[in-house]
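Good morning C.,

I know you're traveling, so I'll keep this short. The sequence:
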Amino acid sequence: MPSLSDGSWKLKGLKSKKDYQKGMIVFVGKDITAKDVFAKMVDNGHVFSSVDSQLECLEKLISDIPNFKIGTKVTLSEGKLNVFQS
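The tokens, ready to paste straight into the viewer:
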């Protein structure tokens, strides 16, 4: 999950809360909203420096997901998803 932490954007494990350099676009079987993802993150104990910034980033990233194929590996840089280049 994308998260604003210590002033920089990072991919964080939903349950582990570990930082990751890359993630993968997956199909969850239903439409999701930024509020859905935010609620899951809060339920799993994530803490945010700015709720508004977190929601804004989630909204942008969720709207960008259709631009990627399922299974695409991505990185997060300055609040933007990018295709992972190995």
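Safe travels,
E.
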